[in-house]
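pls read this protein:
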Amino acid sequence: MSTVLGIDIGGSGVKGAPVDLDKGEFAADRFRIDTPQPATPEAVVDVVGQIIEHFAEAIGDAPVGITVPAPVRHGKIPMMANLDDSWEGLEAEKFFEDKLGRNVTIVNDADAAGLAEVQYGAAKGTEGVVILTTLGTGIGTAIINDGILLPNTELGHIEVDGHDAETRAATSVKEAKDLSWSEWAERLQRYYETMEMLFWPDLFVVGGGVSKKHAKFLPLLELDTPIVPAQLQNKAGIIGAAWLAEQRKH
């Protein structure tokens, strides 16, 4: 059995768990530490080190997969919205490897969730193009074709009817405007049919906290592409990061 540690760095918490990659499940309970403020790379790597230490016995010298709320280009962070500005331009993979003394893979959080759903969750066994969307404060996206990730897509920002899509269709907009499920579904309909026209995917997977209430809005959408709720919920990022770290061992 291969057990690899996945860590999810978010704006409020840094969470980690060892992942049984045969099953796509946590091998131990998740461990969480509040995100330090300010969330500089130096402060965050210290917290990541504490999480690694917490699980040291379970993971041995296995690689570590880490998600960040930012694009990751060949291990480098070109811009950062939710953590300290000092992340911008950071050679993050090298920085973490040097500080932690082990193999590290850094991946965008939505991309990690998408990989997890393809390997173990709602998209398992789907051939062709899978688009995962996470509906929340904004709209995060991941595109995977036959298991291969197209990294760092920001398709929450495509223009739909003259608007940045996530400013009309994110869960936060539903809550701020007190939209009914059917009113919100009309906005989601325009978003997903535009995505359908541009990418012709084989499957949409819908994640984010609101996906637990998928029965209230997914049946209202009329699309040619099947659309299903994510299965792994808030475990997806950690599982996907661990899976990718194992794939990329170097």
Observations:
- Helices lie at 41-54, 56-59, 92-100, 109-119, 166-169, 171-176, 181-199, 236-247.
- The chain has two domains: 3-111+236-248, 125-230.
- The chain is about 30% helix and 25% strand.
- The radius of gyration is 18 Å.
